[in-house]
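In the design runs reported in the main text, the only information available to the sequence generator was the tokenized backbone. The following block is the verbatim input for one such run; it is reproduced so that readers can re-run the procedure and compare outputs position by position.
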């Protein structure tokens, strides 16, 4: 049988590089994966498109469990990730991110900063710009990506800095990682997996959730830039 998996982009690199294939080899169950930011996946669900298993922001999955879309007892934390910044390839020294003041200087000095307003990191970054008092200046020339990997905007010249969760920035290897946001303004997102309340094969779906939290999968999350919960 085929299990339909909805997954946030933040874990895509790890899933594509062995986690999903490992489950299929071990169980014989194929996995059809739909990748999108959690907010976009929520829109699909609101329209009646239901997954057998979902990976997303823990707080939002808790809400889905409360609404009866996911089976609450199945929710399992799998990884967390912080927000980082990448720079365009071959574009001089990397920005200094050691302090909040140096972060502000880097953002204000960029020709254009790329970020997505539909993903967890982009929603946080938009609020951070306001907290730092630089929202108007940065947004006046920002490259706002509807969804997907913001570092792609570094490769085609639309931006010279990109902001996203570290694991998503790593999905674009040509981009140069500058590092994580300073600790004082860092924001970590915890991701969880859960079984759909209407999963066609509950046992197989639960098996996938357990596989997503197993040590081999966690090792692949770490290699992709995420952290253990």
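Verbatim output:
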């Amino acid at each position: 049988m085929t299990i339909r998996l909805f997954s946030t982009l933040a874990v895509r690199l790890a899933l594509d590089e062995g986690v999903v294939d490992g489950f299929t080899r071990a169980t014989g169950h194929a996995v059809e994966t739909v990748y999108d930011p959690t907010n976009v996946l929520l829109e699909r669900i609101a329209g009646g498109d239901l997954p057998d298993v979902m990976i997303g922001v823990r707080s939002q999955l808790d809400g889905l469990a409360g609404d009866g879309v996911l089976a609450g007892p199945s929710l399992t934390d799998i990884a967390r990730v912080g927000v980082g910044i990448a720079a365009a390839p071959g574009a001089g020294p990397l920005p200094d991110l050691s302090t909040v003041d140096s972060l502000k200087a880097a953002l204000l000095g960029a020709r254009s900063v790329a970020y997505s307003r539909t993903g967890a990191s982009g929603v946080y970054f938009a609020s951070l710009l306001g907290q730092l008092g630089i929202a108007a200046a940065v947004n006046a020339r920002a490259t706002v990506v509807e969804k997907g990997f913001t570092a792609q905007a570094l490769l085609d010249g639309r931006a010279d800095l990109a902001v996203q969760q570290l694991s998503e920035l790593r999905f674009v290897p040509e981009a140069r990682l500058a590092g994580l946001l300073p600790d004082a303004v860092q924001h970590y997102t915890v991701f969880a997996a859960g079984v759909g309340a209407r999963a066609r094969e509950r046992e197989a779906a639960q098996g996938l959730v357990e596989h997503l939290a197993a040590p081999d999968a966690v090792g692949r999350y770490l290699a992709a830039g995420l952290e253990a919960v």
